[in-house]
């Protein structure tokens, strides 16, 4: 695998984004389509940001093993290691299918909910992988290069900017800073545009998706340990994420008993009702 980490990291530092052209090969792309085919049609957007003509499938890592491998892609994790602290977390994992007639999203950045003032060091790193080729006509992501460096006036600056549509083939992936201003474009074509996004965050940051509740335990137990850790079965030193003074990964062990319940039974106490 030929991946120039320095070039891609440099592009993110300078422009806010980079594109990995060969992110998914044909076999993996076909498997992504197959798995998503079971779920598309189940969730239309509830507001203009989700998109009233956009379908979304959340918690992808619980949907198929192919998404385990993709979340652990070595190239993306190398970029995470460059910009985030060790043992970063997965904060979001969702598919996005923009249907014909969809309007453009509002311009935004993916970690707007973190209240640390801009400009700021990176708290999250996003990826959007094209399952269908991205064009200016079919809702390809629109970006504002350099916007990751803007301060608290980013909304005013974005309103005056001219976003550029990302054109990339199926299987390519755009990787960008959580402070990078972008949006899903309008789909003026006759066909849907399918993509998916994995987002990563600092190990101390709260995740967008509650994977500990969203991913069934029987699924999480089968995952590679690194992915388990990225879902939240991990500790950020000294003890952030602890489970009643134990490591949260103990939940995944056979025969796990909740310590509160076990201690209550041992002393004859009743749990709150």
Structure commentary:
- With 273 residues, the chain is an alpha+beta fold.
- It contains 9 helices and 9 strands.
- The protein has a single domain, classed as Sandwich (Jelly Rolls), CATH 2.60.120.
- The radius of gyration is 20 Å and the shape is globular.
List keywords for this structure.
single chain, 273 residues, alpha+beta, Jelly Rolls, 6-stranded antiparallel β-sheet, 3-stranded antiparallel β-sheet
CA-based shape: globular
CATH class: Mainly Beta
Corresponding CATH superfamily: q2cbj1_9rhob like domain
Q: What radius of gyration results from the CA coordinates?
A: 20 Å
What low-confidence regions span 5 or more consecutive residues with pLDDT below 50?
A: none
Largest pleated sheet: 6 strands, antiparallel
What share of residues is helical?
25-40%
Which whole number gives the mean pLDDT?
A: 95
What is the name of the CATH architecture? Sandwich
Number of helices: 9
SSE order, one letter for each helix or strand: HEHEHHEEEHEEEEHHHH
- As for the CATH topology, it is Jelly Rolls
Q: Strand-residue fraction?
A: 15-25%
Q: What is the rounded distance between the termini? A: 56 Å
Topology, number of strands = 9
Number of domains: 1
Task: Report strand order across the widest sheet.
Answer: 1-7-4-9-3-2
Helix and strand content put the structural class at: alpha+beta
């Amino acid at each position: 695998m030929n991946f120039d980490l320095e070039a891609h990291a440099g592009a993110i530092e300078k422009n806010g984004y980079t594109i990995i052209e060969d992110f998914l090969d044909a076999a993996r792309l076909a498997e992504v389509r197959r798995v998503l085919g079971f779920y598309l049609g189940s969730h239309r957007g509830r507001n203009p940001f989700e998109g009233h003509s956009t379908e979304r499938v959340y918690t992808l890592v619980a949907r198929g093993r192919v998404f385990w491998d993709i979340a652990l892609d070595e190239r993306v994790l190398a970029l995470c290691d460059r910009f985030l602290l060790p043992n970063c977390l997965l904060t979001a994992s969702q598919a996005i299918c923009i249907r014909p007639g969809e309007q453009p999203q509002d311009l935004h950045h993916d970690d707007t909910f973190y209240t640390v003032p801009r400009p700021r060091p990176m708290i999250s790193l996003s990826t959007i992988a094209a399952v269908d080729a991205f064009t200016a006509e079919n809702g390809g992501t629109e970006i504002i290069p350099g916007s990751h460096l803007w301060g608290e006036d980013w909304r005013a600056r974005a309103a005056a900017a001219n976003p550029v549509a990302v054109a990339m083939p199926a299987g390519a992936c755009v990787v960008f800073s959580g402070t990078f201003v972008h949006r899903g474009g309008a789909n003026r074509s006759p066909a849907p545009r399918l993509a998916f996004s994995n987002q990563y965050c600092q190990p101390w940051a709260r995740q967008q998706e509650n994977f500990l509740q969203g991913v069934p335990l029987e699924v999480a137990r089968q995952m590679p340990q690194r992915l388990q850790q990225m879902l939240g079965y991990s500790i950020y030193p000294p003890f952030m994420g602890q489970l009643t003074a134990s490591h949260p990964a103990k939940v995944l062990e056979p025969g796990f008993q909740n310590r509160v319940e076990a201690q209550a039974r041992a002393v004859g106490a009743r749990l709150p009702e």
